[in-house]
Write a structure and sequence with these properties.
The complex is a heterodimer of chains A (351) and B (498). By secondary structure, chain A is an alpha+beta fold. Chain A is built from ten helices and 17 strands. Chain A folds into three domains: 172 residues, Uridine Diphospho-n-acetylenolpyruvylglucosamine Reductase, domain 3, CATH 3.30.465.10; 72 residues, Alpha-Beta Plaits, CATH 3.30.70; 62 residues, Alpha-Beta Plaits. Chain B has 498 residues and is α+β, with helices and mostly antiparallel strands. Chain B has four domains: 103 residues, Uridine Diphospho-n-acetylenolpyruvylglucosamine Reductase, domain 2, CATH 3.30.43.10; 118 residues, Uridine Diphospho-n-acetylenolpyruvylglucosamine Reductase, domain 3 (2-Layer Sandwich), CATH 3.30.465.10; 110 residues, 2-Layer Sandwich (Alpha-Beta Plaits), CATH 3.30.70; 75 residues, Alpha-Beta Plaits. In chain B, strand 8 and strand 9 form a beta hairpin. The relative contact order of chain B is 0.11. Classes of the chains: A alpha+beta (351), B alpha+beta (498). At the A-B interface, strand 7, helix 5, strand 9, helix 7 and helix 10 of A face strand 9, helix 8, helix 9, helix 11 and helix 17 of B.
């Protein structure tokens, strides 16, 4: 198993010379996400360690194989957090997998996504070259934003080696309230409240109840609860962790699970099956047997896009790209990985 | 590939201006094609006036079809294209190309839609930054990034430069606030990116496009995120008798978990200048002052004010002043906002630098800048976004005094290299443009710069869009000499050095 930078570089270089596909992996908690591919495993599981963390600078740099739990534990001690509340989907999740998948959790709508918190990355490109982009500072416009380009690229543009993330202070207090609402009213309310200055940090609707989390000082959350109404729930932390980790009852299903992004204020979609909503209505999860073509057409009609999150026996996991966009995707892939050896086909069959 | 583009551009010289004018007149009204010098002078430079260049011609389209037709003609004749909004760039990003077309997008200034329910604004590239917030105001919403030129600068330019402002510490840069773009590619095709949702399929081309200095495509439309106005704002001033204490206070505030909406520092030279210029009432003898704006929900704000006051006193502030009302708050901000014209009153010319550093090195870097200032014999004032470590050293010089411009540039270059040395970057928000090409060679190695060129080629193979900006050629880096030495190896060993 490749342990250090030089070993990993050597393995990529070897694959480049021999035109052999590599399958990048570490904690294997998110391997279900994206298309099924074959390739020689390139493991980053041993490329671990936090290399720089200074609470006052609000950033942390670590090697990509560092367990996510290790990072969260280190920053929690200083009352800091990863603002995007990343899903683990298993205790072995690593920071590299988190960035490659680019998935964010409940706090995304208010605090930004993984990509918003990427300050810099080191990668090995498809030619075995070790490259550094971005840095440790929040404002940095030197050169194209290659760091953010790596986020959500599913390892198809480079092997993530080191990542610098922006951190945020933890709110002193969090409380969650539940209110019984029909779907139309839930969507309307979430967006009405999002238009106010109230520090709402998460929202979730299960078909019957709307759950809203407030973050701030105790007096702040209390004042907001008075405005919104509803019942405070116990175990707020566990409730949101279950949403984040798909441990909530809704996600325990044998049906294909679709992840649908739409403008938040979109009325309920005309799809069969069951669904839940997050992010003020901007993220909708559907457990449905609707066929992909029908579902995608419906989602497109409201200016959204859809991805088969789990149960992906399909060729087309992510929403199809336009011809113009696909052309640029293929050229970019070629720019970083001319031999097409890094997770080829993981995102789209074409590259 | 890059050599080929040079050949193409050389070929474009041979096409006569009259033929080009004739072609552009077929797709644009006569008054939208500018060819004589008097008409072209307003475009010869942007906000960085040290660099001047007249374009071959300037075009003022007012719709997408015209722009598409322009792109097609430029591609046919391999003419370089420099897109421009208000021309407020501080790095020469909109400097015209001698052989090319200056594409002025200012006429595309419609706000297409304000969608209060999804908190978005869809606008054309020539809409000014401030106009978006004004249009959103009736709905209690605003557009957060606020570069100091926000009255004039356009959203197209903001996207090209990934513009910042005084409130980025809490609300992010342009890249954090753009949701969708409609891009015209050099092939004349429309590339739609993003939407009114939280993420997009495929690569994050929105991020790549933002801050790409007009080198990957032309923005035809942008959808940006709108935020609700904070319930309340409070502004504090703190004065210090030395810069180190002020730097410690900045670190202290952030360490305690407070993210101010804005946290700005002014040094004594700037304080003096602003007092003379507009009398904001800053303590005249302070070595440095901090202006700290906190915003949010009322209850939250009250507890933060108490905490920040305590931190400032613990850091030995000699004075802490809380603005009691909006008028007092405005007065505190007035000096900061007038700092650049105020400094302009002290000197015939000034040169503003844009390096960003980790906050903990503020005192160290400011001290070193002071040393460099003495070494080169030019005064340097500091007024900057302390909260995010984004320095704006302002070098005061006289362009008419022999050699002073060169000295100012040399001093600026040394300051930027100092920023890289402490783990920072050569540009936080102004962009590389033509100004910082040499320092790019210090920040990035050969393979990294080659990657940037490959990204460019993926969008614009013949390098027609804003050629020569943002990313230096390897040849230039070899000539510049002070290069990134990576793992002890001298890069570009095969290139000649002079």
């Amino acid at each position: 198993m490749a342990e250090n930078k030089e070993d990993i570089k050597a393995q990529v270089l070897e694959a480049y010379k021999n035109h052999r596909a590599l399958q990048i992996q570490a904690g294997e908690t998110k391997h279900f996400y994206g298309r099924n591919i074959n390739g020689e495993p390139l493991s980053l599981l041993k490329h671990t360690g936090i290399t720089e963390y200074e609470p006052s600078e609000l950033f942390i740099t670590s090697h990509s194989g560092t367990p996510l739990i290790e990072i969260e534990q280190a920053i929690e001690k200083h009352n800091q957090m990863l603002p995007f509340e990343p899903p683990y989907f298993g205790s072995t999740a690593t920071v590299g997998g988190m960035v490659a998948a680019g998935l964010s959790g409940p706090r995304r709508a208010s605090a930004g996504a993984v990509r918003d918190c990427i300050l810099g990355v080191d990668i090995i490109n498809g030619k075995g070259e070790y490259l550094h982009f971005g840095g440790k500072v929040m404002k940095n416009v030197a050169g194209y934003d290659v760091s953010r380009l790596m986020c959500g690229a599913l390892g198809t543009l480079g092997v993530l080696m080191s990542i610098t993330l922006r951190l945020a202070p933890m709110p002193p207090c969090e409380q969650t309230i539940a209110i019984s609402l029909n779907p139309n009213d839930a969507i309307q309310k979430m967006n009405e409240w999002a238009n106010t200055a109230m520090p709402i940090s998460a929202s979730f609707y299960d078909g019957n109840d709307l759950y809203v989390r407030l973050s701030g000082s105790l007096s702040t959350t209390q004042a907001c609860i008075d405005i919104i109404g509803g019942e405070c729930i116990d175990w707020s932390d566990i409730f949101w962790k279950n949403i984040r980790e798909h441990a909530h009852d809704f996600f325990i299903t044998d049906l294909p699970l679709w992840r649908i992004s739409v403008p938040p204020n979109t009325p309920p979609l005309k799809l069969s099956g069951s669904y839940v909503m997050e992010w003020n209505g901007g993220l909708r999860w559907y457990a449905t047997e609707d066929n992909a073509e029908y579902l995608r057409a419906e989602v497109e009609s409201v200016d959204g896009h859809a991805c088969v999150f789990r149960g992906n026996n399909t060729e087309q996991v992510f929403h199809p790209l336009s011809d113009v966009s696909m052309k640029i995707h293929r050229k970019l892939k070629h720019a970083f990985d001319p031999a097409g050896i890094l997770n080829p086909g993981k995102m789209y069959a074409e590259f | 590939m890059l050599l080929w583009s040079k050949v193409y551009i050389d070929m474009s010289k041979s096409i006569s201006l009259s033929i080009l004018t004739q072609r552009f007149h077929q797709v644009l009204p006569e008054e939208a094609v500018l060819t004589n010098k008097e008409q072209l002078y307003p475009y010869e430079s942007d906000g960085l006036t040290a660099y001047r260049q007249l374009p071959r011609l300037a075009l003022l389209p007012d719709n997408h079809d015209q722009i598409k037709a322009i792109i097609n003609i430029c591609r046919e004749f391999q003419l370089p294209i420099v897109a421009r909004g208000a021309g407020t760039s501080l790095s020469g990003g909109a400097l015209p190309h001698a052989e090319g077309v200056l594409l002025n997008l200012a006429k595309l200034n419609n706000i297409i839609e304000i969608d209060p329910n999804n908190r978005t604004a869809r606008v054309e590239p020539g809409v000014t930054n401030l106009a978006i917030s004004q249009a959103a105001k009736p709905y209690g919403l605003y557009y957060a990034p606020d570069p100091s030129s926000q009255i004039a600068c356009t959203i197209g330019g903001n996207i090209a430069e990934n513009a910042g402002g005084v409130h980025c510490l809490k609300y992010g840069l342009t890249v954090h606030n753009v949701l969708a773009l409609k891009i015209l590619t050099i092939d004349g095709e429309i590339l739609e990116l993003g939407g009114k949702y939280f993420d997009s399929p495929g690569y994050d081309l929105l991020a790549l496009m933002t801050g790409s200095e007009g080198m990957l495509g032309i923005t035809l439309e942008a959808t940006v995120k709108l935020l609700p106005h904070p319930q309340q704002k409070k502004v504090l001033l703190a004065a210090f008798d030395n810069i180190e204490k002020a730097g410690n206070a900045v670190t202290g505030i952030i360490s305690e978990g407070v993210i101010p909406a804005g946290l700005e520092m002014l040094d004594n030279l700037t304080i003096q200048a602003t007092e003379q210029y507009c009398s904001p009432g800053y303590p005249p003898n302070a070595a440095a002052i901090l202006i700290c704006e906190l915003d949010g929900f009322e209850e939250e704000l009250n507890s933060q004010i108490i905490l920040v006051k305590k931190i400032l006193k613990d850091c030995q502030a000699i004075e802490v002043r809380l603005a009691r009302d909006e008028q007092e708050a405005e007065l505190l901000w007035m000096g900061r906002k007038a700092a650049f014209p105020a400094l302009g009153n002290l000197t015939p010319d000034y040169y503003c630098i844009d390096g960003t550093i980790p906050r903990k090195y503020l005192a160290h870097v400011l001290e070193n800048i002071n040393g460099l200032s003495k070494k080169h014999g030019l005064r340097v004032a500091n007024v900057f976004h302390a909260g995010d470590g984004n320095l704006h050293p302002v070098i005061l010089y006289d362009a008419n005094a022999s050699g002073e411009l060169e000295t100012a540039e040399e001093l600026g270059g040394e300051i930027l290299e100092l920023c890289i040395k402490v783990g920072g970057t050569i540009t936080g928000e102004h962009g590389v443009g033509v100004e910082k090409l040499n320092q790019m060679c210090v920040q990035f190695n050969e393979a990294e710069i080659t990657t940037f060129h490959a990204v460019k080629a993926a969008f614009d193979e013949n390098a027609l869009l804003n050629p020569g900006k943002a990313i230096p050629t390897l040849h230039r880096c070899a000539e510049f000499g002070a290069m990134h030495v990576h793992e002890g190896k001298l890069p570009h060993a095969d290139l000649p050095r002079f």
